[in-house]
Amino acid sequence: MTKTSEAIVEALANERVLGALLNSIRRDWGAYDLIAHHQQGEFHHDVMVRVLNAKPRLPGQYLVISTNCNGGVKEVLCFDAPVDPSALWHFRCPENPEFSGAIPQLLACARTEHWFEPCELLAPDARSELKPEFRARQTGGGWCKRLS
User: How far apart are CA 78 and CA 89, in angstroms?
Assistant: First the structure.
């Protein structure tokens, strides 16, 4: 019995930790290319990888692995084309005028218990571990360390 591609994406998400998930990709597909890393706010990271030889087991060759600040996997999204971070955040928070663009067709999605509504990270009163004098607002919302 073979797993469906959605079940495989779910199994990757169920690794629960970025390092273990990437090790699973390496074990099951041989390799991956790191395409991009985008941090939105202090507590959300999107790591995009291209899985070599992804098909037919995965529906697409691009995975967006969303993690918290500790590398805990929140969500795994599967596409057949790269995803622009602004378009991804526009998809997540369409009412936010600072994000724009369209994502490719979403082929599979799996979420873990680490997932929560990502738009909450963008609010002006979003939680931060940085003192106000040491942080700056990112485009779209969320806090990052002030550069100067």
Answer: 15
Q: Which pLDDT belongs to residue 1?
A: 36
User: For 9-27, how does the pLDDT look when each residue is reduced to its tens digit (9 = 90+)?
Assistant: 999 999 999 999 999 999 9
Helix (H, G, I), strand (E, B) or coil at 47: strand
Does 78 map to a domain? Answer: yes
Query: Within a domain: residue 135?
Result: no
Nearest to 124 by CA among 41, 63, 3, 43: 41
The total domain count for the chain is 1
Give the residue numbers spanning the domain of 65: 5-120
15 Cβ neighbours under 8 A, 6+ residues apart? 21, 23, 24, 73
Dihedral pair phi/psi, residue 35, rounded to 5° = -95, -45
Flag whether 134 is in a domain.
no
Note whether residue 76 is domain-resident: yes
Full-model pTM: 0.94
